[in-house]
Write a structure and sequence with these properties.
The chain is an alpha/beta fold. The chain is about 45% helix and about 20% strand. The strands form two sheets. The protein has an eight-stranded parallel β-barrel with strand order 1-2-3-4-7-8-9-10, surrounded by six helices. α7 links the parallel β7 and β8. It is globular.
Length: about 300
Amino acid sequence: MKIGVILPSIETQAAQKLDIATAARHAEQLGLSGVWHGDHLATGAPTLDVAVALAAAAAVTERIHIGTSVFVPALRPLAWAAEQIAGLQCLSAGRLLLGVGSGGGPAQWAAAEIPYEERGPRTDTALRLLPALLSGARVTLPDARGRAELELAPSVPVPPIWVGNHSAPARRRAALLGDGWFPSLIQPAQVATGLAEITELAARHQRPAPTVTVGATGVLGAGTDLPTRVEIAAGITGAYGRSLEETLSIPITGSLAEAAERIAAYQGTGAHHLVFGIAGGDWRNQCELLARAQAALT
């Protein structure tokens, strides 16, 4: 299994004297598979634009993947979303992994001046049209005032498109419109059940089974400065409105052997990648432990 890491937040960068470029180089030197960044608007927390952050990471690395966890194309005009994706694919020389979602609360969509109820249809349209747009084909874009034709230049190889979330609409999109499925913060049994459903639906439509990438969080090792599993689970509960009973088993914590065992459980469901959000401690050191956990799986 390949393991990637979420790039440090602005708060972590400030506290640990760490910038995006240094973090990306560190992850690459350790042999991690990718560096990832989310796409957030009006969250109340300071954050970098996803394209800016990943462009910085791409510019200082050579081998490591850069990934969106996840990009929300429906927040933008589709032509602009395609241009951002093409720019990242070009700058990274084809190293982009494109996680796509339709998430975020109503405040994010209000800030983008897009009705919250339109997020699903706009995401479906983006998933249908982005591959042709990125490849340089002339595409007719839907528009409330008519229809516009666009031919993106420069064209780029279409990156793998992995549909985020584990909701029923997301599973449908992964089966019918994506190359992969990218659920986060769920248990291995849920991954296995969801993958079986998606694989069956894809087969009915004569599409290949999607790859699976799992988003996870936690801290590795021991120390009084590290948050506990309960504390991390409580954070998930507060952020997503889920019960503590449901989230308590989600954080990956403990020794390297314990972490590798937890990650191997996801690998056993058929997942090929794991994207890890570091929940505390020294970011550089946590990356080193992640790289050792990755090596233990190969």
